[in-house]
């Protein structure tokens, strides 16, 4: 749900199996506590280009125990003193922040595959990679569900 004018995630439906969420380039400034309740198995969260200004706004992400990768690029919070160190301290479960680990090593290309394997025990859904393919059936089902819940979603296909 990239660049669709979201200012809040409060109307996000419960998506307990969701592992990756991209809500970049919106106007989200807080209320991230919703994610721990509705999307408890997130491993990857992209909040880049939103209105997140303070570290306190991301404290709620401590409850996302499986969160391995967080992107806050182009958020005001990235200008804070000791931003990276503070986020890694606040969210010890994180491996990657803005595409880099604590030693400034970039996320390897194969890390995407590993993210797909992370999740609750017994969840052996091997076709998670298909989620990223544009126009896949899983994306359409997800969008249909969101539309049923009354959340306005725009999809751009290039």
From TrEMBL:
Family: Belongs to the ANP32 family.
Primary location recorded for the protein, binned into one broad class: cytoplasm
Composition skew (Acidic residues), residue ranges: 100-137
Disordered: annotated segments: 99-143
Domain of life where this protein originates: Eukaryota
Keyword Coiled coil: no
Keyword Isomerase: no
Compartments (UniProt record): Cytoplasm; Nucleus
Gene3D superfamilies in the record: Ribonuclease Inhibitor (3.80.10.10)
Alphabetized Pfam families for the sequence: LRR_9
Role played: Multifunctional protein that is involved in the regulation of many processes.
InterPro entries referenced in this protein's UniProt entry, alphabetically: AN32, Leu-rich_rpt, LRR_dom_sf
Keywords for this protein: Chaperone, Chromatin regulator, Cytoplasm, Leucine-rich repeat, Nucleus, Repeat
Name recorded for this polypeptide: Acidic leucine-rich nuclear phosphoprotein 32 family member
């Amino acid at each position: 749900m990239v660049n669709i004018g979201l200012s809040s995630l409060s109307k996000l439906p419960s998506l307990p199996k969701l592992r990756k969420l991209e809500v970049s380039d919106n106007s989200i400034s807080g209320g991230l506590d919703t994610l721990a309740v509705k999307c408890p198995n997130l491993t990857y969260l992209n909040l880049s280009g939103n209105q997140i200004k303070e570290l306190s706004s991301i404290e709620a992400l401590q409850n996302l125990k499986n969160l391995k990768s967080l992107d806050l690029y182009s958020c005001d919070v990235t200008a804070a003193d000791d931003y990276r160190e503070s986020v890694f301290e606040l969210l010890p479960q994180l491996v990657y922040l803005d595409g880099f680990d604590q030693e400034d090593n970039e996320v390897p290309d194969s890390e995407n595959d590993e993210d797909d394997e992370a999740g609750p025990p017994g969840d052996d859904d091997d076709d998670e990679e298909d989620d990223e393919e544009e126009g896949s059936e899983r994306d359409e089902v997800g969008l249909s569900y969101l539309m049923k819940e009354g959340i306005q979603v725009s999809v751009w296909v290039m």
